[in-house]
């Protein structure tokens, strides 16, 4: 017959092991020591193996089997605590899961900070995270696959959607230091970039079909994601716009250089929270929206990136020497 220990037996076993004695466990659990001993004896009978060595020592010592069972007991009781927290949350309206779609345009440090605090504040709430480009975030929310979306590229207003501006990110055109555009020591014109390969992310959704954003070159390479675009630009295979938060370290270390191109509409890139009107956020999702608002509405990136750009911009003396 398979063992069928009770949760109470496992709790008593764990308390004895952690407190160091049967008498200490009786005080912790506010039970008679005889009850503690009886419970452990029944558990050992269920498992058909001794959990404590009782001879030769005044204090109970775990057997080899007891040490193994102790880890199982801890895991089972920990899972029980998670279940209890989830039930409590559901009774008070807390979601069992939050599904969020986050655009790659959202600064990475803001995403990491929000999700770290979300984990600590809502340990019983599961998280499903999708990252997407351009209209993908909107599509995930509209289809109901995501509870909320955080990102830009809100292409059209829809009465079935609630759209709130949270703050902004920052876009800038860049190239590798060895790229021909990076060698031109003056502000760039449209004529300079027309014949150079521009790397452009193609939206996986249909929401931006037929629309181009800051596409200036005649030669275009279409890519499926911004991570690939980032790597190809660093590799010198073309130029293009990237989120400033993604390339800050590249600018500091000289792996990428900012292109002084007035024709490229760089600057603040608005970030929105998006949800379906018929699916209002629960406490955890509502907290996440406000957490992103707090971080993105106070975005200092513009000043920081200007400093980073200036570090790698040659001064007039350097240009004269060249």
From TrEMBL:
PROSITE patterns: HTH_LYSR. One of its GO terms (molecular function) is DNA-binding transcription factor activity. Keywords: DNA-binding, Transcription, Transcription regulation. Residues 5-63 form the HTH lysR-type domain. The keyword Transcription regulation applies. InterPro entries: LysR_HTH_N, LysR_subst-bd, WH-like_DNA-bd_sf, WH_DNA-bd_sf. Belongs to the LysR transcriptional regulatory family. Transcriptional regulator of the ttuABCDE tartrate utilization operon. This is HTH-type transcriptional regulator TtuA.
């Amino acid at each position: 017959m398979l063992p069928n220990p009770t949760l109470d037996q496992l709790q008593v076993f764990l308390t004895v092991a952690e407190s160091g004695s049967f008498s200490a466990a009786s005080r912790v659990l506010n039970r008679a020591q005889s009850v503690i001993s009886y419970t452990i004896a029944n558990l050992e009978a269920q498992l058909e193996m001794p959990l404590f060595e009782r001879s030769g020592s005044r204090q109970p010592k775990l057997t080899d089997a007891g040490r193994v069972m102790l880890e199982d007991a801890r895991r089972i009781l920990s899972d029980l605590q998670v279940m209890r927290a989830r039930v409590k949350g559901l009774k008070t309206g807390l979601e069992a899961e939050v599904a969020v779609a986050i655009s790659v345009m959202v600064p990475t440090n803001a995403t990491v900070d929000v999700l770290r605090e979300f984990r600590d504040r809502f340990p019983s709430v599961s998280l499903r995270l999708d990252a997407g480009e351009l209209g993908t975030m909107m599509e995930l929310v509209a289809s109901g696959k995501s509870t909320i979306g955080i990102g830009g590229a809100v292409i059209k207003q829809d009465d079935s959607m609630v759209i709130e501006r949270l703050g902004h990110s920052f876009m800038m055109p860049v190239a590798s230091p060895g790229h021909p555009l990076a060698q031109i020591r003056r502000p760039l014109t449209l004529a300079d970039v027309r014949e150079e390969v521009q790397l452009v992310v193609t939206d996986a959704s249909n929401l931006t079909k037929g629309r181009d954003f800051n596409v200036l070159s005649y030669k275009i390479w279409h890519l499926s994601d911004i991570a690939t675009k980032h790597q190809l630009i660093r590799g010198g295979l073309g130029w293009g716009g990237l989120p400033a938060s993604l390339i800050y370290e590249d600018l500091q270390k000289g792996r990428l250089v900012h292109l002084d191109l007035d024709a490229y509409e760089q600057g603040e890139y608005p970030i929105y929270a998006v949800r379906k009107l018929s699916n209002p956020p629960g406490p955890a999702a509502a907290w996440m929206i406000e957490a992103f608002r707090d971080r993105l509405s106070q975005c200092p990136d513009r000043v920081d990136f200007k400093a980073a750009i200036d570090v790698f911009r040659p001064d007039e003396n350097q240009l004269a020497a060249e």
